[in-house]
Specification:
Chain lengths: 663, 737
């Protein structure tokens, strides 16, 4: 008998996959085995930007000798392909952000009456960053100005994006020195598309620097705008207990899966699902109630803010349908597989598309409109409720779930270290300096059945890092993986974390792996890293921190945009696959050596998980050495105690420093 | 683990909150919502609530509002499993506890229950710590005499241990607050205060041991005191909780010793203190919290060994204690300076008009004296000492050193008082030929000999003046004849010395000195000290600074070359301006030494007096620290003080040292002494002699009588009446404004 191939380390997913196989149903897991990747495109050697091609740049010494019809060399072609991917990823996050900004504007003007301004404190914080006056103004007045200012950044033609100045001073200087500061979000995306059009930018270095620039329009532009506005509209997350797994589907309730990325409609679904009339309607139809189920990053958004359980990440979308328990799966944009509408045909599940940007053959389309958001939400819920009676017995009924504590916004991470009055990053920085915490790893990104069994590298790295006293922050499908594995509990710290990290987790009461939200919320990692750099003791730039960023199971162009803005922000970033420019050594060299020299971060692609771990720890230790921190030794930590004499106290950052005697 | 502590603190906060709520309701029912309240002698309302939130609690209604704000800080206890984080929540609960305790104690004041009387011993606790006490401590906080603060909560396992711990803290000059109760090793509920009382240990501010009350909640008085330091000396604004708490963490070196079993309210109060950066060290099997960042080092530590607990606590707080102890058989430290010795406890005494006595410091050449040589002159001195009673005593301290200057002699001589007084069981008062020394029976029993007096002076003179004194030789005269003979010689030198000092003027020197000592507490203040203007704390004059600079060239006193005289009337010098601009980081651009009206001297907060302009009287008033009555400008000292401290120049208001009043340079640019229209009776009494001399020089010999005081008026209308009636010269002078 052939050895059974594990497709997912998410046990519930694996059960469903077995059930699906037994019932002759196909999923992305099988398709990824059946369809081999095109080797030329996979290695970045295919140029199809004009119709003289597509040209394949292959053969012996292709790097030096192969050219396309126009004469483009392999490095040019693969750099161009890469830039296009980064531009597309940036476009995705940023277009999402644009919708959020318009929703904020209409919430402020009253045109979208179902939306309110929930976090006034954060609104004011943002207003301060944008130099918008707040004194003696209503929250709506402030919000209107904030929204308009942020909307203007998409079409801004000159100058700098406003959030650039939220980065450490030194980082801003690096960006200015290399001409990396985005002028306007849309402008950088358009320019990237122009540059990669036939016959424009033919210099791999220049193309790749453009990738960093456009990615900054994502990280310090679109993504950051989206995170902040979402917090203002729906509340800044704080820790909540919930559950993770497809097993959260309920047998006796109407299961409504909210899938995709933009939280606006999902938020409305959360609200109206509690309305007595809707609950009553569900009961009338024989269900005990309505069970909202999150999927992909929409799941992360509603988990962080409302504790709505998550069914998992990207690869679980088809599987959710195969439980036979989903009355409806509501989708909007990004990472939605058209396969779900086909899978749904075998079950009673209705696939509901809601965005004009994302329609799908064989799905029901109910157009979302923020002016009557709740009404649309009710319509979708009623459709699901009406569908309850069509549920058949068939399906992979699974009910195992894992507990999760999620909701670690930047603001809460600040709060949790000292409460309302002493909030700061001093304890975290101290812990790193003292060697209790060796460093910080951001494990983010997607699932990809071609790279590894679902979640396996996410889970492996997360656990190995915490054993090595590395604090893990995670978002997106990485967060979903750790949640489903049951790692995001405070008990994990006690059972699995290294001794120093464990002590810190115990002092605060946190899991050693922190859920920071959706993939668009990687911007939270940027602002957290900035505060760490500014708190003192760990250098004065993100590039100085003993930290790494990893997207071990990536697949989306958005991941590549994230990876690039991490690098441009100074972070050593590792992706867990072959290089998308595997064919060009020159492009790889630029993205590691050249980038590191210029911006302090580099992007490397390492398929072997153990190698990722090894290089990450090496990098963290290298940064610790550079900061002259004590050598990391598990179980041995502490700082040199400076006992303060009166003279020492006088020298404390006083305005009036005693200066050496004059004369 | 920490969760146990967080849970206890959160539970405790709810208990304290409920207790405050109930008592407040009761008091409101009795007095009505508009009933006004303030703690005794403070300008800071309910200081914790004021410093953290900026809210001025003046009435019971305000307390209700403050309690509502407090409620927002309460949290639920973390769950047993799958808990959400609790550190931030526990710290908020701690702050809520402090707010609720403050309201509860305020209500107890209204109910007449504070300061508390010990139900067992009848001892009256200190209760709320006034602004006056806080400011009185001023210079001690910064010169190393009081490097740290301990709050002992609970009780030691037995009385001997309580005494041992407190003595050790005293010897390290650490101010000790006592509160709360715990069971001793026999299971009896008691407190450290009672344990010390039972052992006959002297308590009070003078000996650095201050019992606050019987409950844990009384610890709040100490925390109220600590947070006020930020407002008074730090110059931080009420409501600026970030800076106020950073100040306490960085500059107020306080810690808690939890003796005996901990309970929810102790943890809740402790969590409040941790907000301020004050860690707790406990003597029982408690969980520890070691990660740093909220406190400078550990937040909670345990030390079961009572021999080590004080040292451990000092390390945990990151405090350096330098103890200079001479080789004598009694304990030594500034904590013993305020100790008194009653007649009945006296074994022997010298001077004090009972026997002839003197203490004199003179300068010799290096080859003329032998370091460490102690000579006691007089027949049978040993026998006479052993008999006790009274004895003549002349103390001659001879010093020599390459960097020694005659100008330093009065400084060294003035320290002779402190040298003796810091010994436990010996006491000193006065100076020169009016000195008075007592040695207690206890000290004698511990083996204190006459020779030890000389040993103290030898050791301490070296320690205090090590950079300028190379040799110290001490001679004690014990016969009346010798004492009188040597006293004559001393008097001749004192006379010459006084004359030389009088000739020392601002114009006759080319260098002034800065005093930055207070920067450990008041980081933005710089004192400029001139021969005719001593420091506003009254503790440092020009010569002190000069000597201090010789002793430690990079220390708190730096030379300030006068530079060019830019304005003779107002006393503005280019060198002073240049120095100040640098030393204040640009905060102070220019200083006028002789006026209150334009760019006057800034203050740290520990000024002896405040001078304030009374525009309608065309003059100024002077009120000293500790005066609790109203003044003619409608503010009490405590309120006025709030406008002067924190290193800011406030034209029309200024902190000064008492002796500056009779300086020729006192407001010289504004018209001088004749501008004083109101001055407290106590001040008048204190400066009388010198004032009279100066008044005569100014041509108004009856000036003192023309100055009003609190017995004449406390408001400006009556003041004007009085001034007109007596024909005060200020009314005729050019307008101040």
């Amino acid at each position: 008998m052939a050895e059974k191939v594990i497709k997912s380390v998410d046990k519930v997913a694996e059960n469903i996959l077995e059930w699906a196989e037994a019932h002759g149903l196909e999923t992305a897991f099988e398709r990824s085995e059946r369809i081999k990747p095109c080797p030329i495109g996979h290695s970045g050697a295919c140029c199809k930007i004009c119709f003289m091609g597509p040209c394949r740049l292959v053969g012996q010494d292709a790097e030096e000798r192969a050219t396309g019809v126009c004469g483009a060399t392999l490095p040019v072609v693969s750099a161009r392909n890469l830039l296009r991917m980064v531009a597309a990823g940036t476009a995705a996050h940023s277009d999402h952000a644009r919708d959020m900004a318009f929703t904020l504007l209409e919430a402020a003007t009253g045109e979208a009456p179902d939306f309110q301004i929930r976090d006034v404190q954060k609104l004011k914080k943002l207003a301060r960053i944008l130099d918008i006056p707040t004194e003696e103004r209503t929250k709506e007045e402030i919000a209107k100005d904030v929204a308009e200012k942020l909307i203007s950044e998409f079409g801004q033609q000159k100058g700098e994006l406003s959030f650039i100045k939220r980065a450490p001073k030194k980082r801003q200087e690096v960006w200015r020195k290399w001409g990396l500061v985005p002028r306007g979000i849309d402008r950088e995306v358009v320019e990237a598309l122009h540059r990669t059009n036939m016959g424009v930018d033919q210099d791999p270095d220049n193309l790749l620097m453009a990738a960093l620039k456009v990615s900054l329009a994502d990280g310090w532009g679109g993504s950051m705008i989206s995170t902040d506005i979402t917090d203002i509209l729906f509340g800044t997350p704080k820790p909540r207990r919930s559950q993770a797994s497809i097993g959260i589907m309920k047998e006796d309730e109407v299961n409504v899966v909210v899938h995709g990325h933009e939280p606006t409609l999902a938020e409305m679904i959360v609200e109206v699902s509690q309305e007595p009339e809707i609950v009553e309607y569900a009961k009338k139809k024989g269900a005990k109630g309505i069970n909202l189920v999150g999927m992909c990053c929409t799941a992360n958004e509603v988990l962080m803010r409302h504790g709505i359980p998550t069914a998992g990440g990207f690869l679980n979308q088809e599987l959710a349908i195969m439980t036979g328990l989903a009355e409806a799966i509501m989708v909007d944009v990004q990472c939605i597989m058209p396969a779900i509408a086909q899978a749904a045909k075998k079950f009673h599940t209705k696939v509901v598309t809601t965005s004009h940007k994302g329609k799908m053959i064989d799905a029901v389309h109910i157009q979302y409109d923020e002016h009557r958001a709740k009404e649309v939400a009710r319509q979708i819920l009623r459709l699901a409720i009406d569908n309850y009676e069509n549920r058949k017995a068939e399906g992979a009924h699974v009910h195992e779930t894992s507990p999760v504590i999620a909701g670690f916004s930047h603001e809460y991470i600040d709060y949790m270290q000292g409460g309302r009055f002493r909030a700061s990053f001093r304890p975290l920085n101290d812990a790193i300096m003292a060697g209790r915490i060796r460093g910080v790893a951001g494990i983010v990104g997607c699932n990809n059945p071609r790279i590894a069994p679902q979640d396996s590298i996410h889970d492996y790295l997360a656990i190995e890092f915490i054993k090595n006293d590395v604090l893990v922050v995670t978002t997106g499908c990485g967060a979903a993986a750790c949640a489903k594995a049951g790692f995001m509990t405070p008990e994990t710290a006690l059972e699995m974390a290294g001794p120093g990290l464990r002590e810190v987790c115990e002092a605060i009461g946190i899991p050693p792996i922190l859920h920071l939200g959706a993939c668009v919320d990687n911007s939270r990692i940027l602002t957290v890293a900035t505060q760490m750099a500014e708190e003192g003791g760990l250098g004065d730039d993100i590039a100085d921190l003993p930290a790494v960023g990893i997207a071990p199971e990536w697949m989306s162009e958005k991941a590549l945009a994230i990876g690039c803005y991490f690098v441009a922000s100074g972070v050593y970033t590792i992706f867990g696959s072959e290089h998308p420019a595997e064919a060009s050594r020159e492009v790889q060299r630029i993205m590691s050596e050249v980038w590191e020299e210029r911006v302090g971060g580099k992007l490397e692609f390492i398929p072997d998980p153990e190698e990722i771990l090894k290089k990450s720890l090496e990098h963290i230790d290298k940064k610790r050495d550079a900061l002259k921190l004590r050598k990391y030794e598990p179980g041995r930590f502490g700082v040199e105690r400076k006992l303060m004499s009166m003279a020492d106290r006088r020298k404390l950052e006083s305005v009036a420093r005693p200066h050496e005697g004059v004369g | 683990m920490s969760k146990i502590i967080a849970s206890a603190a959160i539970r405790g906060s709810h208990k304290v909150f409920k207790q405050a709520e109930e008592l407040l309701q009761k008091v409101i029912a009795e007095k009505g919502e508009d009933y006004k309240f303030e703690f005794p002698d403070t300008a800071y309302y309910l200081p914790m609530i004021y410093a953290i939130t900026g809210f001025e609690v003046k009435t019971l209604k305000d307390m209700k509002e403050a309690l509502r704000m407090t409620q927002d800080l309460l949290h639920d206890e973390p769950d047993d499993n799958l808990w959400t984080p609790y550190l931030g929540e526990a710290l908020d609960s701690g702050m809520a506890t402090l707010f609720a305790e403050e309201i509860w104690l305020a209500c107890r004041y209204i109910e007449g229950l504070e300061p508390e009387k010990d139900p067992e011993t009848g001892y009256e606790y200190n209760g709320f710590i006034t602004d006056t006490i806080q400011r009185n401590l001023g210079i001690q906080l910064v010169d190393g005499r009081m490097p740290g603060f301990a709050a002992i909560i609970g009780a030691a396992p037995d009385e001997e241990t309580a005494v041992k711990i407190v003595r050790e803290l005293q010897e390290k000059n650490i101010l000790v607050f006592l509160s709360g109760q715990a069971k001793d090793k026999n299971g009896k509920l008691t407190s450290c205060t009672r344990q010390l009382l039972n052992q006959g240990v002297e308590l009070g501010w003078d000996v650095y041991v201050v019992p606050l009350g019987t409950t844990t909640e009384h610890t709040l008085y100490a925390l109220d005191w600590a947070i006020r330091a930020s407002l008074i000396f730090g110059g931080h604004k009420p409501g600026d909780f970030k800076n106020n708490l950073k100040y306490t963490k960085d500059r107020v070196f306080a810690f808690a010793l939890g003796l005996g079993e901990m309970d929810d309210i102790k943890w809740a109060t402790g969590a409040g203190a941790i907000n301020m950066g004050f860690p707790a060290v406990c003597d029982t099997e408690v969980p520890v919290i070691h990660p740093t960042g909220v406190c400078t080092y550990e937040e909670v530590e345990r030390e079961l060994d009572h021999d080590k607990i004080v040292q451990r606590a000092i390390e945990v707080r990151g405090l350096k204690v330098i103890v200079d102890k001479p080789p004598i058989p009694i304990a030594y430290g500034s904590a013993f300076e305020g100790e008194r010795i009653r007649k009945d406890d006296t074994f022997i005494e010298f001077g004090g008009n009972r026997t002839p006595a003197f203490e004199w410091c003179r300068m010799r050449e290096l080859d003329e004296i032998e370091d460490g040589k102690i000579t006691i002159v007089g027949d049978d001195w040993k026998e006479r000492y052993e008999q006790g009673g009274q004895m003549p005593l002349g103390i001659l301290v001879e010093v020599a050193g390459r960097k020694m200057q005659p100008d330093f002699l009065p400084i060294i001589e003035r320290r002779l008082h402190h040298n003796i007084n810091e010994g436990q069981g010996i006491w000193h008062m006065g100076q020169r030929d009016i000195n008075w020394i007592r040695i207690s029976k206890n000290a004698k029993a511990e083996g204190f000999s006459l020779e030890d007096i000389a040993k103290i002076h030898h050791a301490m003179t070296h320690k205090r003046f090590r950079a300028i004194v190379d040799k110290v030789q001490v001679t004690l005269f014990t016969t009346e004849e010798d004492v009188i003979k040597w006293r004559e010689e001393a008097r001749a030198e004192w006379k010459a010395r006084d004359e030389r000092l009088a000739a020392l003027t601002d114009d006759s020197v080319d260098t002034f000195y800065s005093c930055l000592l207070c920067q450990s507490f008041a980081p933005s203040h710089v004192c400029v000290i001139t021969p005719e203007r001593l420091g506003l704390c009254g503790a440092y004059n020009w010569l002190d600074c000069k000597a201090a600079y010789e002793i430690d060239p990079t220390g708190g006193n730096q030379p300030v070359p006068k530079g060019e005289l830019l304005d003779a009337r107002y006393g503005r010098y280019s060198g002073v301006d240049e120095y100040l601009k640098k030393a204040s980081g640009g905060a102070v651009e220019s200083l006028n030494l002789y006026t209150i009206m334009e760019n006057p001297m800034t203050s740290c907060g520990c000024f002896e007096c405040i001078v304030a302009i009374i525009p309608e009287a065309n003059g100024v008033m002077i009120v000293q620290r500790g005066h609790t009555g109203m003044t003619p400008i409608g503010m009490k000292f405590s309120t006025l003080a709030g406008t002067v401290g924190g290193g800011m120049q406030t034209p029309g208001f200024m902190g000064i040292g008492v002796n500056f009043i009779t300086s020729k340079k006192f407001l010289a640019g504004d018209g001088g002494l004749k501008r004083i229209v109101w001055m407290t009776k106590a001040l008048k009494e204190r400066v009388k002699e010198q004032f009279q001399k100066r008044a005569e020089e100014e041509g108004v010999p009856d000036l003192l009588d023309k100055i009003a005081d609190e017995t004449i008026c406390e408001d400006s209308e009556k003041l004007l009446e009085f001034l007109t009636q007596v024909g005060h010269p200020a009314l005729e002078m050019e307008p101040m404004i």
